[in-house]
Amino acid sequence: MKLLLGLVWPCCGYIIVIISFITFVISNGGLVVGDKSAHQAEINLPQLFYFSFFVIAFALPYFIVRIKSFLKFVLQHKLFSALCMLLFVIITRYNTVVHPYLLADNRHYVFYLWKAFYERRVMPKYLLSPVYFFGLYSIISHLKNKSFLFLLGYFVSLVVSIVPQKLLEYRYYILPFMVFRININNLSWLQLSAELLFFLVINVMSIYIFASKEFYWADSKEIQRIIW
């Protein structure tokens, strides 16, 4: 009993969270808070591509240094690389899922990104396949020194948390991104400084756009602004 308590006690916080989560799901009748019809689970494999693009964008200083090794990998594994990108194109062609909210709400950056790369033109969404491949390669490369259990837990959790999501939303990527970011090793002061400057620029631009860009909807008198 003493041994059992010694094993369980350090995990009490996790156990409480798990029990609370299960209780919530049972009492709520599901995971969704609000309009359940608007958040039905659906297989959306391109979410992994969007996540890789998101990570490249927000961890850019740590991905630039991987370009050389990525090109070397592609040249050494031409057939594998070609098959991967062909698979990405096929998934993009046949499993791209569009949530009505994505097309309806022009207050979010993702609305304009989707219009530019996915809706108005055919080719850009396919031409992004090498970028997705580079992103996934770099994520794995940065985490390759982690234990097998960590990698298994991370990627299984990533797939389970974002692939069933029909809606393309940045917030779905924040937690897996943070877990990835804090597990990057051997960082230089130059990379850290570039990251800080990059985030400062993003924040300043976001605040400026939010404060200066105003527009109205036809069915509302309230001012609308661009947000994440």
Number of strand elements: 2
Largest sheet report: 2 strands, antiparallel
Determine the number of helices (DSSP H or I, runs of at least 4 residues).
13
Structural class: mainly alpha
At a glance:
It is found in: Endoplasmic reticulum membrane. With 228 residues, this protein is mainly α.
Protein described:
- This protein has a domain at 36-185.
- It is mainly α.
- It is 68% helix and 3% strand.
- Helix 3 crosses helix 10 (129-143), helix 5 crosses helix 6 (78-95) and helix 6 crosses helix 10 (129-143).
- The model has no long low-confidence stretch (mean pLDDT 87).
- It is globular.
- It has helices at 2-8, 12-28, 46-58, 60-63, 67-76, 78-95, 100-104, 109-119, 124-127, 129-143, 148-162, 171-182, 189-212; strands spanning 214-216, 223-225.
Main attributes?
single chain, about 230 residues, mainly alpha, two-stranded antiparallel sheet, 13 helices, 2 strands, about 5% strand, globular, endoplasmic reticulum, transmembrane helix, dolichyl pyrophosphate Glc2Man9GlcNAc2 alpha-1,2-glucosyltransferase activity
Q: What is the element layout, followed by pairings?
A:
Blueprint: H1 2-8, H2 12-28, H3 46-58, H4 60-63, H5 67-76, H6 78-95, H7 100-104, H8 109-119, H9 124-127, H10 129-143, H11 148-162, H12 171-182, H13 189-212, E1 214-216, E2 223-225
Antiparallel strand pairs: 1-2
Helix pairs in contact: 3-10, 5-6, 6-10, 11-12
